[in-house]
Amino acid sequence: MDENERKLGKAGSDYAKYTGLGFQMVVIIGLMSWGGYAIDEHAKHDTKWVTAVMALAGVFISLYIVIKSVSKQD
Predict the structure, then answer these.
(1) What's the superkingdom here (predicted)?
(2) Nearest to 66 by CA among 17, 2, 13
């Protein structure tokens, strides 16, 4: 395998890794938001505070996972 093929293989691997991280972020934030919405609906809150807090927690959790994954040495 020559140098160009190795670079292409690594680029494809990096693309898959970061695409997967993007999907993880969407799923985490979506599930946290959905959970907060369900709690707000069940409790019949007029202001959707639980949804906002859970969505924000999902953002922080997903950012933590991304930073941990990106800073990990390959």
Answers:
(1) Bacteria
(2) 17
Contacts of 32 (CB under 8 A, 6+ apart): 54, 55, 57, 58, 61
Residue type for position 20? G
CB-based burial, 44-65: b 16+ in 10 Å, e otherwise: eeeebebbeebbebbeeebeee
What lies within 8 Å, CB to CB, of 47 at 6+ separation is none
Tokens linked to 59:
């953002």
Cα–Cα distance measured from residue 71 to residue 73, given in angstroms and rounded to the nearest whole number: 6
66 Cβ neighbours under 8 A, 6+ residues apart:
21, 24, 25
